[in-house]
Structure formats: C-alpha cells, structure tokens
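Notes from the 1:1 (GR / supervisor)

We went over the backlog. Supervisor wanted to see one worked example end to end before approving the batch request, so GR pasted a single chain during the call. The sequence is below; no edits were made to it. Supervisor asked that the structure be written out right there so they could see what the output format looks like.
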Amino acid sequence: MTRDSGESRIFFEADQAFSEGQPMEFSLVLEHGYPDPPIHVTIRGKIAKVEPKGGRVGVAVAIHSYRFEGLCQPEQE
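Structure output shown during the call:
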C-alpha cells in the first residue's frame, strides 16, 4: 500500500523485510477514471529508510529513474 509519493520519492507499506541502501525495482499501476485506462510505471531506486510497523514494514525509496510501460489493458470478463 502506497502511503506517500512524489517526483523523487515514494513511501509504502509491505509485508516483507527490506534493508536500507538496497537497490529496488518495482511496478505501479496508476488508476485513472473512466474512460482512461490505467498506466503501468516501472520504478528504479534505492531504499532510503525502513520503519517496522507491527507485522508490516514501512519503506521509503529514493527514485532514480522511472519509465512508463504503456497503457494497461482492462481485464476481460
């Protein structure tokens, strides 16, 4: 779950362990309202901070680069 984001950083909560300084690559799907489809973004960065939060972990990532992978196709029923 993403808690905070900006142009050069993102903070999210996860259920796995991470280490400060660890490189990271992950993808986000940015939702849009109808009729625009979601956009898939791949982000590369470095973990700047780790905060234990009960059974979860808060992770702050300094973003080094990102790329848009194109529009996600809506799920077919």
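Supervisor's comment: Residues 2-71 form one domain.
Batch request approved.
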